[in-house]
Structure prediction request, 321 residues.
Amino acid sequence: MTRKPELPFNEVTCASAALTPTAAQEFPSGTIRIILPYAAGGPLDIAARILAEGFQAELGRTFIVENRPGAGGSIGTAAVASAKPDGSMLIAVGETILTVNPHVYAKLPFDPDALAPISLMGSYDLVLGVNPRVPANTLAELIEYSQTNPLNFSSGGLGAPGQLAFEYLKLKTRVKGQHVAYRGGAPAAAALVAGDVEAAFISSSAMMPFVSSGKVRALATSGAARLDVLPNVPTVAESGVPDFEARLHYFLMAPAETPRVLVDRLNEQVRRIYAESKTKDLLVPIGLEPTVSTPEAARELIKRQSERWEPVVRAAGIKVE
Prediction:
């Protein structure tokens, strides 16, 4: 079953008219940076570079992607939040920095309201996988197994998507498990493969090679519909947990006072680029569903996701002083 995106690019009007030189001159004349507050690699990095290339071709300015990892994404995010709001610095950011970190960290080095959405960049689901030594072939069997054999489950760090999804599962079922935090998604996946932990929710792009090779057994996926790359793996909701959904999102954002004319122009270009079949051909196979939105819809989605994750964070006691 093919998932219907929340805000799909094929249900919006994608204006593709070239911009006039006068319009392009409203952007600053120097290099425009799209900050990625993570290390290089991964679906968001690829999506940001696709946008940078498309923006440069249409807007007549030099766009580059600059990776500024550190402090759970806060270093790069703080740089953009405090940047001059003239369109010279943007950010491609995962939602947890905006929807989870404010609930986890006693003090953030930036104000989330200092960033303004331009558009959604994409959405992705997680795959619940277990080490093959775990005697469970379904989510129901895993829950039952955990009653006498509490699970260790890994994630890429405190408040990371994998922890959130599993803590959410704990709230909605009888599954028993203890979180083990690693420094990033790759070590968390490696721990699952090695058997250092029994289970994990990991992005489909990172999980697929291990599932294909038999090093991990996929039990369920976290979205509202099955993944095209795992058509025989049910969703958590299909597996007997009604209304369960843990879908994560990426956003393109700018400093809050960036002129609306620039925000709208960039939004228009995201729509144009994402309407191209080659964009979908590049992103869908790596687990990122290309989705766009208006700035207002992106802001509302961030608000809804913050409200979704706050009780999960509170119940799990996820806190960094």
Notes: The beta strands are 32-36, 63-67, 89-94, 115-130, 151-155, 177-181, 199-203, 217-221, 247-255. The mean pLDDT is 91.
